[in-house]
TrEMBL record:
Name of the protein in question: 3-oxoacid CoA-transferase subunit A
PROSITE patterns: COA_TRANSF_1 (PS01273)
GO molecular function, one term: CoA-transferase activity
The keyword Transferase belongs to this UniProt entry's keyword annotation: yes
Family the entry assigns: Belongs to the 3-oxoacid CoA-transferase subunit A family.
Claim: Transferase is one of the keywords in the record: yes
Length: 228
């Protein structure tokens, strides 16, 4: 049974200086905004953040960026937040850019116990520099290592008290795959129900991946990020 935590800071106590942290979401959609807010209030530094992007300027992970708590970011769409480019130009952050499909597949490999894989994506571009290249059946591939993290912060719609998760529409972006690829998984949900209230067809992430559950205190609406 997953641990249900009422205190966000208590749930985030496992995150230490220098940790690698996966954060779900595509832009702010499907992002664990409550957990991110808690992380901005935590005394931590030198984090490596694995996420599709670093939020928006002054929103989501963008706040953590402006607090200078992020040492390195691994993702695929950093230009949604121009603060990232400015910090990179100043040498204040290291960036590792991966094509979006490569990012997802590298995390899937990490969760499946696969050390890496060969892909044609990026062959012949700057993204292939320094990577192993192999020709298979006359086609050139580059090797991409699997990605794992110390902690994953993810967002789901419902959880039962065992930790089984269901997601709402496009919140199934990077959240389910991140749940498989981290040593510790903390999920933020809208609702916690009793075991048996989620049908097997609803369950996307089985409870064996989930360590801690917290209820969302912030949500994304048409008006922006608001408190529940």
């Amino acid at each position: 049974m997953a641990n249900i935590r009422q205190d966000i800071h208590d749930a985030l106590s496992c995150i230490k200086n220098g940790h690698t942290v996966m954060v779900g979401g595509f832009g702010l959609v499907g992002a664990p905004l409550t957990l991110i807010d808690g992380l901005t209030k935590k005394d931590v530094k030198d984090l490596t953040i694995i996420s599709n992007n670093l939020g928006e300027s002054g929103k989501g992970l963008g706040i953590l960026l402006n607090q200078n708590k992020i040492k390195k970011a691994i993702g695929s769409y950093f230009t949604s937040n121009r603060d990232v480019g400015e910090k990179y130009q100043k040498g204040e952050i290291e960036l590792q850019l991966l094509p979006q499909g490569t990012l997802a597949e590298s995390m899937r490999a990490g969760g499946a116990g696969i050390g890496g894989y060969y892909t044609t994506t990026g062959v012949g571009t700057q993204l292939a520099e320094g990577k192993e290249e192999r020709e298979i059946n006359g086609i050139k591939y580059i090797f991409e290592p699997a990605i794992r993290a110390d902690v994953a912060l993810i967002r789901a719609y419902k959880a039962d008290r065992l930790g089984n998760l269901s997601y709402y529409k496009t919140a199934r972006n990077f959240n389910p795959v991140m749940a498989t690829a981290a040593n510790m998984v903390i999920v933020e949900v809208d609702e916690i129900v009793e075991p048996g209230e989620l049908s097997p067809e609803e369950i996307i992430t089985p409870h064996l991946y989930v360590d801690y559950i917290v209820e969302a205190q912030q949500v994304l609406t048409k008006e922006g990020v608001v408190n529940k």
